[in-house]
Amino acid sequence: MTVPAGTGPVGTWELVRVNGSALPVTLSSREGGTIEILGEDILLRLDQSYAMFTVERFGSGANTTAADTVNNLGYWGVTGGDLLIGITPATQRGDTLMIRSNARGLSVYARR
Q1: Is 1 part of any domain?
Q2: pLDDT of residue 58
Q3: Are 91 and 62 in contact, with CB atoms under 8 Å apart?
Q4: What is the pLDDT of residue 81?
Q5: Residue 55 counted as domain residue
């Protein structure tokens, strides 16, 4: 089964903004350091599984680590009309996906 682009959340989504800022974006971590998000893609599959690939660096200045890719796998679904990616609420409007989390704030994705 193929879902036409723009009709639902299935597809590949590319992170374009975090809290209104274009990538790369630097956030404070819980440990007091920084996390620089260089890129992120989310693949939402027809079987309601997802794969998220985040390219990030930790630290600042001379203490910055090399970029690393972090993978996150799980399931997405629609409950009571609300889109959930894992346990995180999301909103899809056409080719824009928005996810708000306590750790990061508002992440905005564009359909690829």
Answers
A1: no
A2: 85
A3: no
A4: 86
A5: yes
